[in-house]
Fold each of these.
Amino acid sequence: MPTIFSRSTQRQTPEPQTTEPAFSSPAVPLDAATPQPEAQISSDPGKHAFVSRASMESPYFPTWCPGCGNFGIWTAFKNALVELEIPEEKLVIVYGVGCNGNMADFNRVYGFHALHGRAIPNAVAIKLANHRLKVVIVSGDGDTYGEGLNHLISAMRGNHDVTMLVHDNQIYGLTTGQTSPTTEKGTKTKSTPAGAPETPVNPLGLALNSDATFIARGFAGNIKHLTQLIKAAILHPGFSLVDMFQPCFTFNKVNTYHYFKEKIYNLQDQGFQTNNKVLAWEKTFEHDKLPIGIFYADPHSTPFHATLAQLQSGPLVHQSIEQVQMNKALKGYS
Amino acid sequence: MALHWKVAGRAGEGIDVTGIMFGKICLRHGMNVFSYREYPSLIRGGHNTHQVHAGFEEISAQQKHLDVLIALNEEGISFHLDEINQDSIVLCEAHQDGYDLEQFRHTGAKFFDVPMTNISRQETGHFLSQNVVGLAMSVWILGLDIEVLSQVITDQFQQKGQHVIEMNVRALHQGYQYAKEQLPQLKEPQPKKENSQILASGNQAVALGALSAGVQYFSAYPMTPTTDILQALASYQENYPLVVKHAEDEISAINQAIGASYAGVRAMTASATGGYALMVEATSLAGVMETPLVIVVGQRPGPATGLPTWTCQSDLQFILSAGHGEIPRVILSPGTAQEHFELTRTAFYLAEKYHLVVFVLSDKMSLESYMSMPRPAETYQNKRLSFALDPLPADDSYRRFEVTEEGYSPRSVPGQPHGLNVTTSYEHDEFGYATETAAMTKTMNEKRHRKMKAVLPDLPRAELIGPEHAKLTLVGWGSTQLALAEVLRRMPAGAVNIIYLPCLWPFPCDAFFHYAQQAEKLIIIEGNLTGQLALLIRQETGIQAHHHIRRYDGRPFYAEELIIELEALIE
């Protein structure tokens, strides 16, 4: 297979500036190093004009534990993407590190598998570099509410137009069962044998406090509802947070499917209005019953990128830098 | 003709802006300029200085001895006794500030108690223009043109309105008149020369270099000595397709830069080494993702918060190895403002072409000193490099991390049809899917490291500066090269030459070996305690220097002091 370099590189035109020496030789293909993957992706271009179940199929099947809440979330996520009819090249999914982030290998999309806790800064900059893209962050409770909490607050304050899907299983699964920022106080885990010492983070309250403009909670066991939530979140112009209850069969024996089925109720079924921060605030503190649905949404919020004058003429990545005129920058230097 | 001028006083008295204005006066007379600042990590009240060395000959660093010292308080003299002698003029306000000049008479300097504040009050109603009056008096003493000062003031206060300009111009004329009547003239008036140069700090030169190279995303967290890069680039945003983001922390800053670069724009971050320490994990991320990234690192004395506003070169070994795992990198080490401009441009070129992390490693001395440099060109061309063909084949055969001989592979960007891939922090196969197989792990590590060979022809080259043969061959890097250039000019012909190292990694082994072999005595001069460049040279070439000169007290090297040490080595 030939190496696919862009024409401008292959042309090997020497640079006019002396500080940029001539190009080195063009790429020479070696023997293909990657064995053919087991699953073949359809080569019919018509089949993946939009994100579809077929277009998203990667050669790898999930390695999650049987019964993991990740399956339900994955299904709802894919349903939502398919229903939204996003051109496949216009979607970027940024993954954190955790069981959920391993989804990176199971989705055939433009995927960016970040460092633990750092998916948010990657995602907001991807959006600012090309605001025509849909950017979705797939992450977990440890990733988002622990390691990267500073980034979460900052992204919410900035109303960056990215969607954050937090797999909240209230435990560290990939590292086999330690306390997480959303573990109930007193829960015994491998890292807290005497019981988790801290009060759990209230993610939705935190989001309200940080002026997030779309705040919702879903449940991995209610795929139909979660699909609609994710769709609404992606369509929202501005920062959207979807916290998702996700049973972890293997390491969390408390917050099970049964536990959630007993406690969950749908806010929208009760006619809850999504435009009142104070009422939403109260709902975030309910523990005996657990509300899911949209807590708060401001559909008229202005996303961060729309506030930048230099993006009015189009995405940064489409604005040429091939010729830079220096005169405007050089004022005041002599 | 060279002149050495300094203003010293309390922080908050406009010391810096006064120094920059004096630098511009000299620049507009056609001179070369170097101006150096010292200040403590305080907003008000600490002792601040700004010192200008200017002249028609080549100039690259400040010197200790002063022609004119403007002392805005007693410490403005008492802290600088070793910098003045019978050839110096000191302008001060001893009577008004309540101290006795007799205690300083032993220096031999000529002290003049002049009414800077009074003239300022009289013309502007405020003491703040005392600097302008001091500048006007300096202009007389040094034989400069008062009209040039008047123009500099007008430009400087443009934003503040016509009224402020007029008051200050009145103050400067009063000051000049006073000086003409009361003060001696130290230098003959000089004819002015055309000067197309600009006066920029290392930071500003980095910002201009990045802009010329088409930087479109810059994210950083403020920290001395690189804050001015953030400020300069932020100010360009209104006229350029550039987004500058003051991030919530350094970790976010570098991860944002990586995200933007992944999305296809040229991106950069910058910090002091302490701030960069927080970016180390993400450096490794850029390495494994093969995402182009330019990182500017400004050294200041550590450990930890250290001496925030002083200089050192104690982080070379840190930057050489920063990032877990083995990642290829390039480290460029500019000294002059012009090098900061050029090497930042080069950094973007190398990063994009080879999908590399490229460091521009500098320090407070260079980044916060103002230097005259050739005016950048009107227009810069930037060819985009190493992107995947567009359109890509529709059969989804594209492999983002295709194993190639030169180590880098054509890069698709989101938005491009048929370029889908996973760009991941995990080890991965050619498509980007995570893998843990032994064979692929080995293959990918080797692929990435082949870039270190591929990049060699494009690196700035080591050079021998000065005569081919000399009694001493000096080696320094970064800002130390500024002092070494002064040493070369001031010592007798044939005494010293210099091995110039604009790129420290990959280390230019062959060139260095060649020059070092011809050296009679090899002297390594650097701003750290443990000899970090010496270690690198020994590691890469096996060469051990005859002598080392090291400084690690937060202060830069001075040519005058180095010459004394070097003369002793010649005998």
Amino acid sequence: MTDNTEYRVKLEIFEGPLDLLLHLIRKNEVDIFDIPISLITDQYLQYLDMMKALNINVAGDFLLMASTLVHIKSRMLLPEQGEDKEEEEDPRTEITRPLLEYLRLKEVAGELSERDMLDRDVFKRHLYGDYISQFEGEEVQLDVNLFQLMDAFKRIVEQRLPDATLIYVADTMTIKDKIAFIIERLRQETTIFFTDLFNESRTLSEFIVTFLALLELVHIGMIRVFQPGPDKDIRLMAHFMDNEENDNG
Amino acid sequence: MAKSLKLILEALLFSSDKPLTVKDFHPCLPDAELSDIKSALKVLEHDYEVLDRSFTLKEVAEGYQFRSRSEYGSYILRLLQTTPNRLSRPATETLAIIAYKQPVLRHEIERLRGVDVGGILKTLLEKDLINIMGRKELPGRPLIYGTTKRFLEVFDLKDISSLPKLKEIKDFGAEEYEPSKTSSDNGLDKEIHETDSEGGAAD
């Protein structure tokens, strides 16, 4: 089972750098028109480190945004030059504008998904019906985004292993084992709290293995993740109960 | 006339699983005037509305289609033993960009979402919600994307101009996201040049 230490979670990061920025802005409750660039940049870079430590493939988009943030930060530190201060654009516009565009886009997408959607809300007459095949290859539904999960994970590590450093040591528990373990628990309890998931974990590497197992399960659609509200405990729900027969093939 | 035009149209709609347009009816009813077909459809639509049944005749995707009312969806799902049709949030966002900005290039979508959309485009193409409209005459001949009739059908839209109008967020970046009309093409060209200078127009 030694090859399991090489196991990499191929988690597709649908969330991009703009999602991370919005997450940080909301979390810190700051004004999008007056972003404290130093604070947000520092936190953004911390997330990137964390993603790398977790073996999550950090896309180039994230690095590009990091360099943009650092660049803006440095421009903010420079003394303003020349007389025409009013002419000069706030360096932060470079991220504020795309963020606002993105927010608007999210709003539009929200309106779109609230419409009476065919095969969700309304149905047409079906003459040669094979609905089941139509929905195969469905995308994974994630009710909690990656950054919320990472926050929750960070909190747990900080609470339970205050002096932890991120060194990965090959351990007895593999991701495969952990996946089987989580599934077994969900089979018994249907829903469990995110924090309870880590009750049996003792070392940081075990924490990480548990977390990666969770991400993998979300990715392959075996479980669904919910957060009732910001700062509420994240809950995991089995998503394999009703269609088990179909999926076990 | 023995059989009323309205009832013939009703029979055709009843036996079809896709929205039928006025043009679809024409080969079945070569003698009928298009304008008569149109007005008969309007009457039929109204008839079903007044009947207040569990389904209606909806004008959708440039045609007409019988579809159930949303309050009965959960029962139908049980009958079909399936999960509701779903589109993830990132896919919906990508679709929204394409709907409002079409004809649109991939790197434009990526500029707005700030992330690679290759996988999502593939999904949307597979679901027949978007299609490739052609290639832009630019270095690399990038593909141009637009929405399909299926998109209109799935999202309960009569035609592309009936997309909901956009509210503005505090007058910022207000020039973006107008539903595509003739003016959208100019906007697209302008942005292409901007991105070109950064060397971003590959594929």
